[in-house]
Design a protein that fits this description.
By secondary structure, the chain is α+β, with helices and mostly antiparallel strands. It folds into two domains: 186 residues, no CATH class; 183 residues, no CATH class. Strands 1, 4, 5, 6, 7, 8, 9, 10, 11, 14, 15 and 16 form a twelve-stranded mixed beta sheet that branches. It has a two-stranded antiparallel sheet with strand order 2-3. Strand 2 and strand 3 form a beta hairpin. The two termini are 26 Å apart.
């Protein structure tokens, strides 16, 4: 019998024992779903974050206050060093004379409502104060209008840059009409001078629902004595990143007036190290997911082996007839192995469809990232099903091939 005929007989066997086959098939499908679905979601999430970090540039780093996680009195506490003040941030930007650009920014609020006429957004808009270098270093582009000028960032003009979704919402899907118009944010009127190019979402945060104000304007409206100002640096030459972080460390120590005996009370985080931390943290989750999938498939393979052994017993007379008309042990063995592989591959196909669907839904609606077809995990899923089918079917197939044709014909 050729492969086509073996597959045809295998499908007939599945139909003749439909309930048992479907139950085993679904166990295999759930195992593959766990593998493909969760791993697809992780891959899409990591791709989305990698894309966002690459827009920032692999040759950039951030400076922020140091922190420790400690336990005191049975409660977890976060002990943060003194924040980076407005004056310290501007001093760093002015004195850092390496071949790089620095940007100072501050977080204002994440629950703002933006209004224009009768239109208004939901109260979930992020407002940040930025200088003229922020867009370039953080990977934003201007779609309409212009960026802040250096003098505007340090003065107190009521200007604003709007994210694309905000401009579309307030100006009836015609964002270009927002330029030189006025919008209201927390009771203050701002002149719109620029619309940011659409950037998408990452980790559930919409990058297009954002408002940027000149740094000094934001400081005057949202600042306080304990307000922290973020410092980000983009180095021109990626090979000089380590040297740049060393220079930045020395300069920051001077600005923070630390003595030689004192440890740094700030941290420098490179953009490429963030990706390394993410991959390291997700490695254990990947391993656990793979382990769950393998355990599920192991249970499915035992169930499949049981079905195949029952099938050998039920079809003993059929095996005797096949041998009587010239079928060899090899023919019988291949036939039963094919049946086991076909059941596994059917389960694998169902599992891949379910897994990719779950991965797509998680990526789009939970992580709000960009979905990519997981060809690697699809190929691995099919391969795992092939191996599972072979391992589950080899013993029943050997048992069937060794049956004595005379005794098999007498079997009732």
């Amino acid at each position: 019998m050729d492969l086509k005929e073996n597959i045809s007989r295998a499908l007939k066997s599945v139909r003749s024992n439909l309930l048992r086959s479907v139950l085993t098939l679904m166990i295999i499908a759930f195992g593959i779903t766990a593998l493909v679905g969760i791993l697809t979601s992780f891959d899409s999430l990591i791709y989305s974050l990698s894309d966002n970090l690459s827009r920032m540039g692999a040759n950039s780093f951030a400076i922020k206050p140091a922190y420790d996680d400690g336990v005191k009195g049975g409660h977890e506490r976060k002990m943060v060093s003194d924040p980076i003040s407005y004056r310290q941030a501007l001093d760093f930007k002015e004195k850092f004379d390496f071949q790089a650009k620095s940007t100072v920014s501050m977080f204002c609020t994440g629950i703002a409502t933006v209004r224009q006429g009768e239109e208004e957004t939901n109260p979930n808009i992020r407002v940040i104060g930025v200088d003229e270098n922020y867009l370039e270093i953080k990977g934003y582009d201007i779609e309409f209008g212009r960026n802040f000028k250096p003098t505007e960032a340090l003065q107190n003009p009521y200007f604003a840059l709007l994210g694309m979704q905000i401009a579309k919402k307030l100006f009836k899907k015609k964002p270009e009409k927002a330029i030189n118009k006025y919008v209201s944010i927390s009771g203050k009127r701002y002149k719109v001078i620029g619309i940011l190019k659409e950037k998408g979402s990452s980790m559930g945060m919409n990058q297009d629902e954002i408002v940027m104000l000149p740094l000094t304007t934001a400081k005057n409206l949202y600042g306080s004595k304990r307000k922290n100002y973020s410092l980000n640096v983009g180095v021109t030459n990626a090979e000089e990143l380590d040297v740049a972080t060393g220079v930045a460390t020395g300069l920051m120590r001077n600005i923070r007036r630390l003595r030689l005996s004192e440890d740094d009370d700030f941290e420098i985080t490179k953009s490429d190290s963030l990706m390394g931390i993410l991959k390291e943290n997700t490695a254990n989750i990947r391993a656990a997911t793979i382990a769950i999938g393998i355990i599920t498939l192991l249970g499915a393979s035992i169930g499949l082996m049981n079905i195949m052994l029952v099938s050998v017993t039920e079809r003993t007379k059929e095996i005797g007839i096949c041998k009587a008309v010239g079928a060899t042990r090899k023919n019988i063995m291949i036939q039963f192995l094919t049946e086991a592989v076909v059941i596994c591959q059917l389960g694998g196909i169902v599992g891949i469809i379910m897994g990719v669907s779950i991965g797509y839904l998680l990526t789009i609606f939970v992580f709000q990232g960009e979905f990519r077809i997981p060809w690697l995990w699809i190929i691995i899923g099919i391969s795992v099903c092939l191996v599972t089918g072979l391992l589950s079917g080899i013993y029943p197939a050997m048992k069937a091939s060794k049956l004595d044709p005379i005794e098999s014909l007498r079997y009732e």
